[in-house]
Amino acid sequence: MHSTIKRPRYLSYLLYSSLILLAFFVLAPVAWLLLMSLSSPTDLTKVPLQWIPSQWDFSRYAQLLDGHNGSGERFLAAMLNSLIIATSATVIALFAGVLAAYAFSRRNASMLLMFAFLATIMMPPVTYILPLYSAFSDLGILNTKVALIICYCAMLIPFAIWLMKTNIDVLPEEIEQAAMIEGAGTLYTLRKVVLPIILPAIGATAMLSFLTAWDEFFYALIFSSDLSAKTIPVAIADFSAGRVTDFGVIASVGVLASLPPVIVALFFQRFIVSGLVGGSVKG
Amino acid sequence: MSDSNSSFISNQVSNPPPGQVSGSTDASQRQQSYNNANRDEAILSIRSLYKSYYDASILQDINLDINSGDFLVLVGPSGCGKSTLLSCIGGLTDVTSGEIYCKGKDISQLDPAKRDIAMVFQSYALFPNMTVAQNIGFGLEVRKVPAAKRTKKIQQVAEILHLEPLLDRTPAQLSGGQRQRVAMGRALVRDPTLFLFDEPLSNLDAKLRLTMRTEIKHLHQRLGGTMVYVTHDQVEAMTLASKIVVLNQGVIQQFGTPDEVYKRPANTFVAEFMGSPAMNLMQAKVLVEAGDLKIQIQREDEPPIIFSEPAATDALRAFANRSVIVGLRPESISDLPARDPQRSHSVDCRIDYLEGIGSDVYATLKIAGGDVVSRLHGDSSVRAGDRQQLHFDLSNISYFDPSSQLRI
Questions:
Q1: What domains sit in chain A, N to C, each tagged with a CATH number?
Q2: B162, B211 in Cβ contact below 8 A?
Q3: What is the 8-class DSSP label of residue B119?
Q4: Total number of domains constituting chain B
Q5: What is the span of the domain harbouring residue B232?
Q6: How do residues A201-240 score in pLDDT, each as one tens digit?
Q7: Environment class of residue A19 by beta-carbon count within 10 Å: exposed (0-12), middle (13-18) or buried (19+)?
Q8: Is A196 touching B (CB cutoff 8 A)?
Q9: Label partner for A143 (CA 20 to 30 A): which of A94, B94, B188, B264?
Q10: What is the pLDDT of residues B57-89, one digit of tens each?
């Protein structure tokens, strides 16, 4: 809505210049990534740097999206791994998170337990690497997607519980009581009453969880060794680890790898609207 | 009452011993009435219900029976435990001890979903993600009532509550009164054993509250149904109830019909709580002159008010030459003569100040060191400071024991 509040002109200038500065900070690296991915290797190594490519070079994208050559195969496999792992971890984390959050918020589950959950994500991941490695090794699931899904669930669940709990806490409890009096059990109430109301929060949690899992590098690096489990951050690192580093290829991988999170964000953005609770209780 | 007197009274009433609160005569009756035969007949029976949170005792020794078709109103000041009691009946709050019988079956440990009870919440508690029709039909959907039958019942209820044009809207698109109606529709559609109302009108504006009050009364008369209704508004209690429970600090002060509670309050708390303006309480002395009982009320700088009490009970006679508290409603002190001339006593009084409300004029005067409110006719031309002949109608006079605050 258009604001009718009058503010001094200098304040407007200040606001807009801050905005432009912020936009530059956020967008410049992305723009540079995009330019790099489309520049020819000669332009990228020229001194002084050729900022605007002399010719647009789409060959790397073609190469990466073609599964029949080496780098394309590596890239597409990593993309698929990342998609499977991040999606599974997000879905499991949300499912467990919502139920646990409801228990903490409405069924007097011990807060001590919740702080214990939260404490686990306060620790640096490196502390878990050794025990996890030997455990996964004993289970024979090193270098599998399952191992990474387990790791990411452990990371995401406490975070999801915490986010969902704060959102359930603020719901008027009478709505659930009304459902129970009407004869609904806990699961029915959750499914038909609570979940639809906290859908925006679920959307936000899903988005953040997916991004966290998608971007995770450390566990993925340690627990995966070939195409069966390697995720996209590890794949990007691999591309830069060769003898001759083609910055253009790395940039192209970067651009393509950031597409799924962007699509997820655009999709969930629709859910993240406030005011869904309006009208249920007298405000 | 003067400040010192009212604080004295409230101190005394604050913790009356359980079991004695309804007066010595009522207490023995109550003991008899709460037997098992009643419990099986009544729709709702509560037996020695206690509720406490940690050290705080919220409800103490609650006992009551209501029959099919009764409209029970729980009334009391904020924090008296009336909503907690309702919540215990609905199963949303666990009881500490005691039983709640619904149709003779103990439901105190039963899940709220299995109690066959409907509840209208103070905040309406509508489901924001559903339409009005879905809100009303929720309980039926839970019970897997076929869609066709569901739609028919929703239509019927919508018709009763004038909600037909609103069925496809969501709660956010409704006004306060409409939401209130939807909440009632959700309760009505299932035809439960018991309806619970938790201050359903307190969020509405004054005019709508009156309309909805009348509507609830009509609904009850039309559809029958047994209702338990919580309110802090004693006018709502008087108009709606077939039985009233007055609660204070978790203890039932009185359980009776609106008429009993209004005309024969069990103690000074009920006397002051029910009725607006409150019942006047005056310190008085019981005198015996030639076998006749006379009541003497002292006034400052003026001759005392003395009237005889021909209908004195033995209990009152026992207070001979001792102090009592006399209770008279404002409408019993009027510029118009009492209906029964035998029970009328005229006194010349000085009016301290006046409050006109159109239909009546409330005149405040000083008697026995405290403010006493009298209700004059709306056309009264008396002015503050004037002297006026007032008629004390003694037919509904109440006497209270100053030490126990209980009715004599």
A1: 1-57 (no CATH), 59-269 (1.10.3720.10)
A2: no
A3: E
A4: 2
A5: 18-273
A6: 888 889 889 999 999 999 999 999 888 999 999 988 888 7
A7: exposed
A8: yes
A9: A94
A10: 999 999 999 999 999 999 999 889 999 999 999
